[in-house]
Amino acid sequence: MNILCFGDSNTHGYNPENGKRYERNERWTGILQNLLGDSDYVIEEGLSGRTTVFDDPLYEGLSGLDFIIPTLMTHEPIDLLIIMLGTNDTKDRFGASAEVISLGLDRLIKKAKFCEVAFRNSKPNILVVAPLPIREEIKNAECYYTMGKSCSEKSYKIIPLYEKVAKENGCHFFDPSPFAICSDYDYMHLSNKAHEILGKKLYEIISEIKNK
Question: What is the domain count for the chain?
Answer without folding.
Answer: 1
